[in-house]
Amino acid sequence: MSLATRDRCLKISWRREVDFVILRGRKVYELWEAKLTDTTPSPHLCYYTKLLRPERSIQVVSTTQAREERDHCDRSKRSFGVSTIVSSWHHPAMSTMKSKALRTCSLFALSAIAFAACKSHEVPPANVPVREVTEDIVTKDVTYQSGGTALKGFLAEPKGTGKHPGILVVHEWWGQNDYARRRARQLAELGYVALAVDMYGDGKTTENPEEAGKFAGEATSNLEVTKQRFEAGRAILAENPRLDAGKIAAVGYCFGGGVILNMVRMGVSLDAIASFHGALKTQTPATPGSYHGKVLIETGGADPMVPQADVDAAKAEMLAAGADVQVDVYPGALHAFTNPKATELGQKFKLPIAYDKAADTKSWEQLQRLLQKTWPAD
Fold it and tell me: How far apart are CA 291 and CA 263, in angstroms?
């Protein structure tokens, strides 16, 4: 890629992406290592940030050496209505660059020539750390341990310094993917500290059902290990300074719905649980009188993976345990009805799963009511 300017001709060779920032749900800044050659020629290593336009298909580099500002990205710095903007840091500053990249908003307008030189977006590597700041929430990746296994969670919380109840989000059998993270963000936007936990280890995810089944089987083959991983995530949430002490619930989807039911069966302390199209059947039912929290079961009436007999049995079991139970069955809804990607995946792999917008909307409303009842506003 080359850019002509009044001063020189720049040739940029992209080497690797080393960091990026997401604002308002979109990736807007990328920190790349680049090799720059000018007309001398004298190649040298640089660090560039690239601000992407909403279409995610435009990447532009600065045509002049940029000034550096280290102002934190706050609301006053989110005026992105100007041209696509970037900045650069040269090699001598690289030691401080990575540590401050996510806290930097360097604003420089580009010429029309720069826009003409745009190149297509490259997919970031999976191990690039992500941070997100919006007007209302802050998120970050969290790594924790259980039994020697590295677990990679995703924390979302409201901005500010106030205390809030906490919610553990347990993923579908696909792993702790963008869907689980989106639910954590939504809960943070409602005023909760939400941690999307990792039950597989090392943040493993997949879109292949055979591999997903393998991951899920390994994660639940020993329920004591499952419990240890869940409680490791619970401990991370409990230690969060923004948590309103002792107020923790759990939400689970598909595989995760089964996990959270098993956790209360095994005596994990939770104020409430909500299972969405979750596995309900168990060989180790809760002991009568053992759980007095709230239980919400949201399931599809046409879900062949969770037949009505399992729904009835789970309801009876939780009532006998002493729980406050609510069960909602959505006629015609298949398995995974809350996940917008379910229809695509179902068609691709011939699985009885599909998104149902009406059921998704209604079940989300029921979750909000459950949480409001669990922790009534002062």
Answer: 11
DSSP result, 186-221: HHHHTT-EEEE--SSSTT-B-S-HHHHHHHHHHHHS
Whether domain 136-374 has CATH 3.90.420.10: the reply is: no
Listed residue (255, 261, 299, 295) closest to 277, CA to CA: 299
Q: Distance between CA atoms of 117 and 112, rounded to whole angstroms? A: 9
Q: Quickly state the pLDDT bin for 232 (edges 50, 70, 90).
A: very high
The CA distance from 225 to 158, in Å, is 31
Global pTM reads 0.67
Pairing of strands 86-90, 44-51: antiparallel
Alpha-carbon torsion (28, 32, 38, 44), positive or negative: positive
Domain residue extents for the chain: 2-116, 136-374
| Closest by CA position to 367, among listed 277, 259, 237, 263 | 277
In 10 A of CB 112, how many CB atoms? 7
pLDDT at 31: 52
Cα–Cα dist 378/84, whole Å: 45
State the DSSP H helix or E strand holding residue 113, giving kind and residue range, or none if neither: helix 112-116
> In this structure, are residues 300 and 306 in contact, taking their beta carbons and an 8 Å threshold?
yes
Q: Please spell the DSSP secondary structure of 307-362, one letter per residue.
A: -HHHHHHHHHHHHHHT-EEEEEEETT--BTTT-TTHHHHHHHHT-SB---HHHHHH
Predicted confidence at residue 22, as pLDDT, reads 45
Cβ count within 10 A of residue 244 = 15
